[in-house]
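Postdoc handover notes: sequence design on the structure in folder B. Input tokens:
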């Protein structure tokens, strides 16, 4: 089951990357690709540095985060129309429903008929 969930998640991520990649300009795509590279001697790529949340509640950290916000705004990604990205085929709720249906189908024999063999909580069809 975990393997199937991971496969579904990977498919959804790939579809999202493909959809978002089609929305940005070639210049933006080039800049975004550069963010993933790690400079010589650096421990983090630019994207890893930019995605790190604030660590302290100090004036110095607030200044650093304001500068980070300016760097992010410079990419002009707010102009990208993300309304064209389709809704995911699998949402957390639908994935949960799939997992529960598989779990239910593995219940005791007779569970699909509304009772689970006459013992315990499963004996009552309304136990849920």
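Designed sequence:
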């Amino acid at each position: 089951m975990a393997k199937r969930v991971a496969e579904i998640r990977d498919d959804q991520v790939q579809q999202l990357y493909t959809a978002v990649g089609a929305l940005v300009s070639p210049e933006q795509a080039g800049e975004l690709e550069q963010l993933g590279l790690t400079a010589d001697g650096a421990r983090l790529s630019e994207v890893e540095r930019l995605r790190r949340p604030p660590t302290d509640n100090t004036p110095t950290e607030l200044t650093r985060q304001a500068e980070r916000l300016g760097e992010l705004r410079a990419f002009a990604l707010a102009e990208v129309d993300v309304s064209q990205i389709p809704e995911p085929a699998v949402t957390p709720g639908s994935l949960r429903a799939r997992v529960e249906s598989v779990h239910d189908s593995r219940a005791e024999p007779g569970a699909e008929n509304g009772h689970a063999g006459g013992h315990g909580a499963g004996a009552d069809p309304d136990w849920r």
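Context for whoever picks this up: Residues 108 and 119 are 10 Å apart (CA to CA). Don't rerun without checking with the PI first.
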